[in-house]
Write a structure and sequence with these properties.
This protein has a two-stranded antiparallel ribbon. Strands 3-4 form a two-stranded antiparallel sheet. The relative contact order is 0.07. Among the domains are: about 100 residues, no CATH class; about 80 residues. It starts with a strand and ends with a helix. The chain contains 13 helices and four strands. The radius of gyration is 28 Å and the shape is elongated. Helices cover about 65% and strands about 5% of the residues. It is mainly alpha-helical. A hairpin with a 2-residue loop joins strand 1 and strand 2. The longest helix is centred in the first third of the chain and has 33 residues.
Length: about 300
């Protein structure tokens, strides 16, 4: 983010910070913004979309870590209320006991005898898949049911199972995954559909991740991110469509001013001169003679409305 405290750096100051020629920056920055490498915030400050995305991901990881700490603290409080000693337990031991109360997890390398006996004893549903699929399905369903975000009642109706199987099959084929991921893919697709994620988004991400995703679980976050971005894009389009006339005029004027300023820099090559002549240049081209920021144009057109 090109800011110094509350001060928004101008394009010239950004160029000096980045050790770039001002004319080159002014000429190329609109294209970089158009291609999505950079963007401007509401105050007009330039920022890197990649670095901003990394910050968001870090915040998500920190939030997940905080949630885990709160869950451990709650478990400790409940254990102490039951009279169980907890003062010498490590975080790993607490997590193990928490998992144990949820039914634990299967052994990493169980013997064939143990696998068979467990399937016979713990398979009242008549699951007809392989032992490995049954184990994977148990782990997946336990994880999903214990997640706070997934335990809520879904807002959308329960998807049709035939549709789930069809979309899961197409997604596996698009991602290059075999039938060994059948159970996982159907479970995740079922949850995608219950959360309102459309089949087109699921299949597009599966195709994009072909050769990268070794398991269907690797598609979970990309699919949800893509759906969230799609929703935000739709919301932004609606916001622009429903915006008042003065705001639309301000946005168009700001875009026209940036293009005009870049053209003037290309022709004259003198930033100071272009900046001094800008009020007259803007007036000649039908733009208000105000500071070349989005906030300034919005204030101008809002007062004129």
């Amino acid at each position: 983010m090109f800011r110094v405290g509350q001060h928004v750096l101008s394009d010239a100051e950004v160029a000096r910070q980045a050790s770039l020629n001002e004319a080159v920056l002014v000429q190329t920055l609109p294209h970089l913004i158009e291609w999505g490498f950079f963007a401007r915030d509401d105050a007009g400050a330039v920022f890197s979309t990649l670095l901003y995305d990394r910050i968001l991901r870090k915040e998500e990881r920190d939030a997940a870590k905080l949630h885990a700490q709160e869950a451990r603290a709650q478990w400790v409080a409940e254990a102490e209320a039951r009279g169980e000693p907890t003062e010498n337990l490590t975080s790993k031991q607490i997590a193990s006991r928490m998992n144990g109360r949820k039914g634990g997890r299967p052994r990493k390398n169980p013997s064939t005898k143990n696998k068979v006996s467990r399937v016979i004893a713990d398979n009242p549903t008549g699951f007809v898949g392989s032992v490995e699929e049954e184990r994977d399905n148990t782990i997946l369903n336990n994880n999903l049911s214990s997640s706070p975000s997934e335990s809520r009642e879904p807002e959308n109706p329960k998807p049709d199972e035939a549709e789930v199987r069809l979309i899961a099959q197409k997604a596996r084929e698009a991602a290059g995954l075999g039938n060994g991921q059948r159970t996982f893919s159907e479970t995740y697709v079922r949850n995608f559909l219950r959360d309102g994620i459309d089949a087109e988004t699921i299949l597009n991400i599966a195709a994009q991740k072909r050769g990268e995703a070794q398991k269907f679980v690797y598609l979970d976050i990309p699919v949800r991110d893509a759906f969230r971005a799609k929703q935000e894009s739709t919301a932004q389009a609606l916001a622009v469509e429903n915006a008042p006339d003065w705001q639309k005029k301000a946005k168009n004027a700001y875009a026209k001013a940036n293009a005009l300023f870049a053209k003037e820099m290309t022709e004259k090559g003198d930033f100071g001169r272009v900046q001094r002549e800008w009020p007259d240049t803007a007036t000649m081209c039908g733009l208000p003679p105000v500071e070349r920021t989005q906030a300034a144009y919005e204030a101008y057109f809002r007062s004129a409305a």
